[in-house]
Amino acid sequence: MATVTPKSEAPPVTLSPEEVQRYSRHLIMPEVGMEGQLKLKAAKVLCIGAGGLGSPLALYLAAAGVGTLGLVDFDVVDFTNLQRQILHSTADVGRKKLDSAAERLAGINPQVEVRKFETRLTSANALEIFRQFDIVADGTDNFPTRYLVNDACVLAGKPNVYGSIFRFEGQASVFATKDGPCYRCLYPEPPPPGLVPSCAEGGVLGILPGLVGVIQATETVKLILGAAREQSLIGRLLMVDAMGMKFRELKLRKNPECPMCGTDPSIRELMDYQEFCGVRAEEASMSTATPAIEVEELKRKLDAGESVFVLDVREPHEYQICNLKGHLIPLGQLAQRVHELDSSQEIVAHCRSGGRSAEAVEFLQKAGFRKVWNLTGGILAWADRIDPKMPKY
Predict the structure, then answer these.
(1) Which of 5, 290, 326, 364 is paired with 122 by a 20 to 30 Å CA distance?
(2) Residue 14 banded pLDDT, cuts 50, 70, 90
(3) What is the DSSP letter of 333?
(4) Which CATH superfamily is domain 43-281 in?
(5) Mean pLDDT across the chain
(6) Where are the domains of the chain?
(7) Lowest-confidence segment of 13-27, 182-196, 321-335 by average pLDDT
(8) Contact present, 131 and 107 (Cβ < 8 Å)
């Protein structure tokens, strides 16, 4: 065993001869060296999500020698994940992401301790989980969880290494440090529900989470090593344009009036983030006010030869993947092309999973249509329950 006497602020750990060899390219760097590698081994990092961003993030942190990695996830591996979530393989489809991820990380570096939290992150458990770690890296894909992670990091005093992705664009920063801004300083309020589509609705270039996730891993390692503030993304928002391969930077300042991290914060405990982001109100509106029809009933009507007009409100490139031979009018064009529809007909609107078509039904109702229904679950439900041979995306 190679014994090391680190400086007083370094953790009291040692590296085995095998670890010295494994991390030799770090050890010969003066910016890392033995002291820095010992800090990495003693560090505890929590990754929120084992998906697109969490994959490169966890892989590189494990390879770098971060001693303890926490993973929070409650999902299973799906075929649609494989295009970007490189922690998982084709053989893992149907497995819990946590099990797949832990197995892969152990293969990368068996010295790393992986702690699995198979749960949805909530206001009830976030602080308890966060307090077990030094740094939190946010790889989530929805606004309620982003605000939850931010607020819990501020309350627990943990840096929040932030990343987000959509189509060809990504963002990265470091929030919730002692003197730096938090996520609410940049985004005081969430966007209205449904305004920003999810990656499942809008897509994401499979390589993009690799770019952004590696940036998150880099910032995490620099925080552990104690890099100077001006060398980190604290106070800066890095914006990635993968299509143009351009990187832009936005300077951020701590908002003294921020309700979370300002001089006189009004938020002192975690809240209901679904309600804060308006998600539940949107869901309630869709479930109670939007007329709906199940895929089995639509199939029965079509087989019986009933006069049903199937309205597809997806995009043309989605229609090419799979369709119900319906009339294609993308949601964004519906207001201009509503004249193509006959209000006397029975209309069933559908999209991929039901969200956009619910908006279409609401619009048509306001326009005076009375015989209009939303296909519950969209074309994905049709593929699951009516036609298993139909491609899913």
Answers:
(1) 290
(2) very high
(3) G
(4) NAD(P)-binding Rossmann-like Domain (3.40.50.720)
(5) 92
(6) 43-281, 290-385
(7) 182-196
(8) no
Q: What are the beta bridge partners of residue 160?
A: 136, 175
Summarised one tens digit per residue, pLDDT across range 59-97 is 999 999 999 999 999 999 999 999 999 999 999 999 999
Q: What would the pLDDT profile of 28-58 be if each residue is shown by its tens digit?
A: 999 999 999 999 999 999 999 999 999 999 9
DSSP secondary structure letter of residue 251: E
DSSP H/E element including 373: strand 372-375
- CB burial of residue 258 (10 Å; 0-12, 13-18, 19+): buried
Distance CA 393, CA 384 (A): 12
What's the mean pLDDT in 351-363?
A: 94
Tell me how far apart the alpha carbons of residues 370 and 265 are, in angstroms, rounded to a whole number. 49
CA distances 27 to 111, 225, 242, Å, are 17, 13, 33
Amino acid present at 1? M
Cα dihedral sign, 315-316-320-325:
positive
| Bridge partners (DSSP) listed for residue 373 | 348
Residue 165 corresponds to which amino acid?
A: I
User: Considering Cα of 67, then 72, then 77, then 82, what sign does the dihedral take?
Assistant: negative
3-class DSSP state of 176: coil
| Homologous superfamily of domain range 290-385 | Rhodanese-like domain (3.40.250.10)
Measured in degrees and rounded to the nearest 5, phi and psi for residue 272 equal: -85, 100
Known catalytic residues? 199, 351
Rounded to 5 degrees, what are φ and ψ at 385? -110, -15
Bridge partners (DSSP) listed for residue 167 = 204
Distance CA 72, CA 219 (A): 20
- Count of positions (residues) in the chain: 393
The answer to whether 183 and 140 have CB atoms below 8 angstroms apart is no
How far, CA to CA in Å, does 339 sit from each of 87, 307, 346? 48, 19, 15
Give the separation between CA 281 and CA 178, rounded to whole angstroms. 35
Give the tens place of pLDDT for each residue, 158-186.
Answer: 999 999 999 999 999 999 999 899 999 99
Structure tokens at 128: 């308890």
